[in-house]
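Re: beginner question about structure tokens

> Can someone show what the tokenized structure looks like for a real chain? I only ever see the sequence side.

Sure, here's an example I had lying around. Input first:
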Amino acid sequence: MATDEEKNGMEEEIKGGELLFCGTTAWDAMGRRRTAPEENLVCPTRLRPLMGVDVRFVAAGCVSCHCVALDVDGRCYTWGRNEKGQLGHGDKLQRDRPTVVSGLSKHKIVKAGAGRSHSVVVTAEGISFAFGWNKHGQLGSGSVKNEIETSPVRCQATDVKSAICGGDFTVWLTSIEGSSILTAGLPQYGQLGHGTNNEYNTKDSSVKLAYEAQPRPRAIASLSGETVVKVACGTNHSVAVDKNGHVYTWGFGGYGRLGHREQKDEWVPRMVDVFTRNNVLPPDAVVSAGSANSSCTAGGGQLYMWGKIKNSGDDWMYPKPLMDLSGWHLRCMDSGNMHHFVGADSSCISWGHAQSGELGYGPSGQKSSAIPKKVDVLEGMHVISVACGFAYSLVVVDRDKVNDRIEKLEVFDGKTSNEVGELNDEAAVAEEETQEKRLRKPQSSKKRRKEESSEDEESSDEYGSSDDSDEMVNGNAKPGRGRGKSAALRKRGRGRGRGRGRPPMEKKSSGRLGAVRRGRPSHDMNE
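And the corresponding structure tokens:
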């Protein structure tokens, strides 16, 4: 039987609200080039197609460049980058405006997840559908015959309660005893939890390694005796919580994101010793995973974090309490590439490294914040759901008592899909012309090497996270797995598109959660 807390949670889930967006709207540029100020929404902004729509749930992933939103009637809206068909509209046209996925119109969609280039949804009947990139089998359709699925295909999982996406893999939670958690997709770092990375040589005479796609959702054997109730996925790692409040992590171990006081990869779920005995997670715990870090709330609602927490300084090799948020009641949280959003009490709080306004501090606020700060424009609003993508944030707020304030927020129209398609075509033509010129023009070997090097950096930025560059270095030879980062990675961390230290503060925001607030819940939010 559901407790009062669980019942309240269910009612809160069903209730919808207004979706607000902050961050970059340059979907094709995200993670590839620095965006221009006019392409960024630095303050929480309404999206015209969703004005007045009761949105109940939003989904994004820490390396996602697209969004998924669900309304109370079970309609699924997607928008953003669509090069791999991850929006599910039967094409590869980018969409700036939230658009209903017509292929799901016969179903009531209640849960969703978004990966790097794929999306997975769950219906009220426990059926799961997926669309987008399927090179590694991350759609869970049982086949990799089609590398791209631009329309929804059925996943081979039944009695599904929710679906969560990592970068190139998917996790399903089901109500089937003994198979409460299933995974499919890329096994490279053990993130599927099956005890192997499925590595093989591409040819007998080759040293090039590849990782066998896992297209059929498979239960994690080591958790067959547990009932997993919550999961969060980073780019290449997972965090799960069972019904007893124990926490398990597995996958890529760099920066200590698994919380085991070491950086080695874990190929099967390993229990995090901090959350045992008297510090197990309560039923209403919040769990989140970013590109290179993990978070959860434990006893007393205290938020713990571990992994790469800041761009500089030591990594947190095991879970430590984030004292800035002591005393707050966190209802929801999500983590992006290197930023975080939290709905707590009657406030919305954000922090982290950001370049495109995804923290929502406004034009006079700072871009990044090493400590949690309130999003002033949302002060006093009840947050229903949050989601963080690569360089953007989605927040759903309850309209009750604050509708007049919501009406005053700015509205973003976005381009139609036709306009976006024309722009994409122009960009493709320009790219082809550039390539032709370079082929015609002879180059010195020194210059050619330099250009190839810059192209490599661009391609890694495409999947853009500080974390991914580390994983590609560490994937095979795994150098420098000690506590500190290698000089090469530190140097690369200061490169293009990663930010150049703390941005200048134009004006201090009043939302700072400083020592004055530490350790006690607040009812008077004005400081």
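Each token stands for a local structural state, so reading them left to right follows the chain. Residues 160 and 174 are 4 Å apart (CA to CA).
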